[in-house]
TrEMBL record:
Gene3D superfamilies: 3.40.50.360. The keyword Transferase does not apply. The keyword Oxidoreductase applies. PANTHER family: CHROMATE REDUCTASE, NAD(P)H-DEPENDENT FMN REDUCTASE LOT6. SUPFAM superfamilies: Flavoproteins. It comes from the Bacteria. Its EC number is 1.-.-.-. One of its GO terms (molecular function) is oxidoreductase activity. This is NADPH-dependent FMN reductase. Residues 6-146 form the NADPH-dependent FMN reductase-like domain.
C-alpha cells in the first residue's frame, strides 16, 4: 500500500512563526509513515466574485496541490478568537467550484480528511480550533472528531520570539499524528 500524502496548511506567514515551528514538528513525525507537503499560498489573491473565474494561476496551483493530497492538516494561530484572514481566504478558494455555477461537481477538498492544531496563549488556541473544525465540516471536508491539539506558548518564547517545543508539546503532537494516520487509512 502506498503512503498517504498529508498537506499542511499553516495560518501564518510570520518569520519565526510559532505555528510554523509546530507544523515543522508535525511534518517530521508524519514523514515516518506518510508523504508530507506544505501548501504555499502566499501569492493567492483575495477571493472576490468579480475575479473568481477564470481562477488565477496561484489558485490553480493550490487547488492542484490540495486535490493530489489524501488529507489536510491546518496549523494556525488564534487571532481575536478565530482564524487569520489569510487562512480563511485560502480555504474559501479551495472550497469554491472549479467551473462557474457548477454546484454538482465536488470541490478539490470535498470529503478530504482533516485535522487542526494550534499553539497560542493560555487558551491553547481553543477558539481557532473550534472555529476551524466547524468551518472544515461546513466546506464539506471530513474533520477528525474533536477540535485537534492545542498548545500553550511558553513564556520564554514570547520574550525571545523563538519557540522550543517542550516534551509535553511533542507528546501531544505525536498522539495527534498517530490518531490522524489511523483516521486517514
Amino acid at each position: 500500500m502506498s503512503k498517504k500524502t498529508v498537506l499542511l496548511i499553516v495560518g501564518s506567514f510570520r518569520k519565526n512563526s510559532f505555528n510554523q515551528t509546530v507544523a515543522d514538528y508535525i511534518a517530521e513525525e508524519l514523514k515516518k509513515e506518510a508523504n508530507v507537503e506544505f501548501l504555499n499560498y502566499r501569492d493567492v489573491p483575495l477571493l472576490e466574485q468579480d475575479t473568481e473565474f477564470p481562477a488565477p494561476q496561484a489558485v490553480k496551483n493550490i487547488r492542484s496541490q490540495a486535490e493530489k493530497a489524501d488529507a489536510l492538516w491546518v496549523v494556525s494561530p488564534e487571532y481575536n478568537g478565530s482564524y487569520p484572514a489569510i487562512l480563511k481566504n485560502v480555504l474559501d478558494w479551495l472550497s469554491r467550484p472549479l467551473v462557474a455555477f457548477d454546484r454538482e461537481t465536488p470541490t478539490v477538498i470535498a470529503g478530504k480528511p482533516a485535522t487542526v492544531s494550534s499553539i497560542a496563549g493560555s487558551t491553547e488556541g481553543k477558539f481557532v480550533r473550534q472555529n476551524l473544525s466547524t468551518l472544515l465540516a461546513y466546506i464539506r471536508m471530513n474533520p477528525m472528531e474533536g477540535i485537534g491539539t492545542g498548545l500553550v506558548v511558553p513564556a520564554e518564547a514570547w520574550q525571545t520570539g523563538v519557540l522550543t517545543l517542550t516534551d509535553e508539546h511533542k507528546e501531544a503532537l505525536k498522539k495527534q499524528v498517530k490518531e490522524f494516520l489511523e483516521f486517514i487509512k
